[in-house]
Specification:
single chain; alpha+beta; Alpha-Beta Plaits; 7 helices; 20% strand
């Protein structure tokens, strides 16, 4: 049996704006993941910079910052066996154009930036992101 772990997921402004929150959450729950925390919020630039700290110096970051702060997001902690790997498989590749049908991005996105969801990519990033978004659960 795979190790029980937690991961952070953010349903980005495009997913919230398009009314996809319920469908996205349903896919995670249908796979057997448990929602341990959930919050609707709007990010400011400083919080976006902390979340995307490793990307702030990239030339493509300013448009990402503008997008992620453009509307409300839904942040959640998901838990279950191999949660990080399971969520990333459900989400599909970052670029919605390349994401296969059946994945969240493959079904709902045709963009590299407006790609519906963010998810932690490792146990280390999950711990850092959960502490940032949900310090009471860190």
């Amino acid at each position: 049996m795979s190790q029980w772990e937690k991961t952070l997921v953010v349903i980005k402004p495009d997913g919230v704006r398009r009314g996809l929150v319920g469908q996205v959450l349903g896919r995670y729950e249908s796979k057997g993941l448990a929602i341990e925390a959930l919050s609707l919020r709007r990010l400011d630039g400083a919080f976006a910079d902390r979340h995307y700290a490793e990307h702030v110096q990239q030339e493509w970051y300013p448009p990402l910052r503008e997008f992620i702060t453009s509307g409300p997001v839904v942040a959640l902690i998901l838990a279950g066996p191999a949660a990080i790997e399971v969520v990333r498989a459900l989400n599909g590749p970052t670029n919605g154009i390349a994401a296969p049908p059946g994945s969240i991005r493959g079904d709902f996105s045709s963009s590299n930036r407006e790609n519906i969801v963010h998810a932690s990519d490792s146990p280390e990033s999950a711990a850092r992101e959960i502490a940032l978004w949900f310090p009471e659960h860190a």
